[in-house]
Amino acid sequence: MWxxxxxxxxxxxxxxxxxxxxxxxxxxxxxxxxYAASFDVKTISVxxxxxxxxxxxxxxxxxxxxxxxxxxxxxxxxxxxxxxxxTEMAVVTGxxxxxxxxxxxxxxxxxxxxxxxxxxxxGAGTSGTADPGSAGGTSASLATAPxxxxxxxxxxxxxxxxxxxxxGVVLVFVxxxxxxxxxxxxxxxxTLEQLAVMPLRPRDVFLGKIVPYFVVATVDLAxxxxxxxxxxxxxxxxxxxVFGLGALLFLFVTLGIGVLISSVSQNQGQAIQLAVMTLxxxxxxxxxxxxxxxxAAGVRWIAYLLPLTYFNEISRGVMxxxxxxxxxWQPFLFLALLGAVVVTGATLRFRGYLAPAGREHSGRKPAxxxxxxxxx
Amino acid sequence: MTAAPLAxxxxxxxxxxxxTAVSDVNLQVGPGEIVGLLGANGAGKTTLIKMLLxxxxxxxGEVALFGEPPSRQTRSRIGYVPQGLGxxxxxxxxxxxxxxxxxxxxxxxxxxxxxxxxxxxxxYATDLVGSLPLGVQRRVAFAQALSHQPDLxxxxxxxxxVDPLGRARLWETIAETxxxxxxxxxxxxxxxxxxxxxxxxxMADGAVVAQGTAGQIIxxxxxxxxxxxxxxxxxxxxxxxxxxxxxxxxxxxxxDADPAAVRRALGxxxxxxxxVPATLEERFFQLASQGAAGKAVA
Amino acid sequence: MTxxxxxxxxxxxxxxPGHDRPAARAGLTGQAASSAGSATGGEAGTSSSRFxxxxxxxxxxxxxxxxxxxxxxxxGQVTAVVGGDGAGKTTLLRCLAxSLAPDSGTVWRPxxxxxxxxxxxxxxxxxxxxxxxxxxxxxxYGMTRQAARERAADxxxxxxxxxxxxxxxxxxxxxxxxxxxxIAAMLHQPELLVLDEPTTGVDPVSRSGLWWLIARAxxxxxxxxxxxxxLDDAERCAGVLxxxxxxxxxxxxxxxxxxxxxGTLREVAVRPDGEAAARAWRRGGHWRVWEPGFGGxxxxxxxxxxxxxxxxxxxxxxAALGQLLSAGRA
Lengths: 376, 298, 330
Description:
The structure holds three protein chains of three kinds. Chain A is an alpha/beta fold. Chain A has 14 helices and five strands. Chain A starts with a helix and ends in a 22-residue tail after the last helix. By secondary structure, chain C is α/β, with parallel strands linked by helices. The chains are: A alpha/beta, B alpha/beta, C alpha/beta. Chains in contact: A-B, A-C, B-C. Chains B and C meet through α5, α8, β11 and α10 of B and α6, α7, α8, β12 and α10 of C.
């Protein structure tokens, strides 16, 4: 038995991918769950509008952070800021009670805002007398029980924000994991060389391999959306065209990553390992579960490298807030660029397999060495 | 054979449900003998080997290894090299040998930490097995199987894929082992290898259809050789007559027919038709086809 | 016979000879070429489609996979490339089939549509059925459904695979899978059929089925090149090229290779001692000793040693030995 143990250790020592997984995964989870991730929102971005904007701004202390102020604007401007994801809360001042709009699609920020508002009201109620000229007067204006409306997800239900996120996860799953398996299968069974010799254009092979996964991903997406809308009552308020375009771009990115993974994997086991290593950070850090703003800054920058982060913005924005494409230009641009890079890389690597290997590939081992036991 | 056989099968039969994989096989391997086991895929060779190794039980009959039924103790007196060589690709030969030595619980002969690797393999001792050429891998696999000094060697296609000179060298090692008193059972598909065995056992459809030396098995079997100017026409005509035809350099050989039938099939085509002794392969083919009479050739 | 198609010379570097060299090149393995003519007798058109390779060099990093290897593959003939594992057979066949570009040298092959290839790993999808695999191959080569169906049915029938047409290829025995792989490679009636070790590991009964398919392809006018480590395969072929560690050891018809073996061969009962041990090898229970027969001392201790007629296996072993001895590595 001891002999088995020694042997396994020796083999493990040389299996770099598994080693990486064994070390990287726990570290990643530790960093994320222990340090970075949190459901506590520390700051809530606010836009203030209306004639008493300045006063409202002074009244809103931490955890609120007034990032936009526009005294000349009114409710519809405020609402637009929320819709376009620019702030999580908006205050509209004017004659009568101030109006507080909270973005329900930012679930944790919304809850934190409600709590903080309640705290403010209590504080204002017990603090000094109303004194028109002093700061107390301004808090009085806020303290006059603002009307609070929660937009986009009035019930603050979790499923409403999870389902749009799930759409992205499905696309990552099919795009990256399943695709990487499908392409590496070709390498494993040795049929890739046969394809290289047949009169097929590399383009035919590449597209032919990817299109089925494209179709499967689209069907999966439709199912998730269908079930979400019909059974969980998740709204779809925005433009299907914008959503569709975002999904398409995102799918290109994930499919491309899947092909790239398969091009550096010798077998399905390796492909899965690598695919899982790209899936896990995305699930944890893209804002799917833990809100982006509450992830520690030291780790948050990673989120901005992950494609799912951008798609989540698109899917939540369009489905819950009917966000227009103009406001979503950042995610779209990022996905488009990333998609172009990834698909180009994947195509080039793929084409490399199907062209006659030449001098540039002189590092490859001849296939003749691998025939033992292949024929039984 | 005067000494007690090292491995013996008496009336061994094995069924899987309705399917009979091995049927009433008698086989023995004595010390110093090299016995070749030949047969088509599905003939039952693998099942028989598994029963000999003790990995599978019999439905009927007895298997005896060193005079007793197969057990963990008898397993340690056997050296087995499967077709896939049984080596770990991601370990070095030295590490493979260490593992095997520890498992068989024997003190490795051989100096220092070379663990019984023969001198000629020492330069490769620390490379990963997966990176070594096949010929070297085979030699490592042999060394590993021999390192615990087995009394019985079972080798599955030992020289598949090796060049003629390399094959001769590997067979020298096998022969030396037999000369030292071990018994060797070899399974093979290749007639070149069959020629190295002292005795052959040919299986078809689970039963033994012939046993003896190559000469005994071929006996007086003959085949028809056709030499024609236009070989492709001859080929086509013989085929059309339903005869099994094999290409042979400049001529054609028909293993399963008499000269008259061949002449008839050729018709008016100018060709010489004569009979020559069969090769072992052709005799095998005749036996295997008869053994499979009535069934589709798998 | 079969259509000509374009023959393209695929050359890679400055060393590549021009189009007018092929005729001269053929002289190198000229025996194979001229005997092809006689072996296939009056078959028309054999001299017009000449496929093959000349002076190929292939390097993988620092390893020399092929060094100055030439091969002639006449139509209507089966040419064998013989050697053990690592000899360079797969590399040579990949160059012929077009999936590898040599570092130097020239390859003559028809266009992709007219090449059939069986790679070392069979090139068959294990998770498709026999019929589906052939269907994919037929479509990939642009065959009409009708033609593909008919030819496939014919080949499957002769190979004994008709009953297995609906079975997953991964569930076939090794011999059946190889037969399927050969059928898939020749389905579209290529002009050049390149088969990498089709018979390795295959049982004798299936092997005869494979050889039927190969003979049929050659009979239809195809140029067949097959790689094998088995000399009884090579003995059936009209042309043979023997490779060892990337170098050409011998070429020609089997008879020519035997005739060209230098020196003589003796058979002795026990292994000789001393220097002769390096020139001896075991075969069939006895030992064979090779006398190079050029210069050097002749061993007078030829007691009870009869001179024997070498066969192809002996000639190839001698060629390999000669190579080793001259490189000082025996």
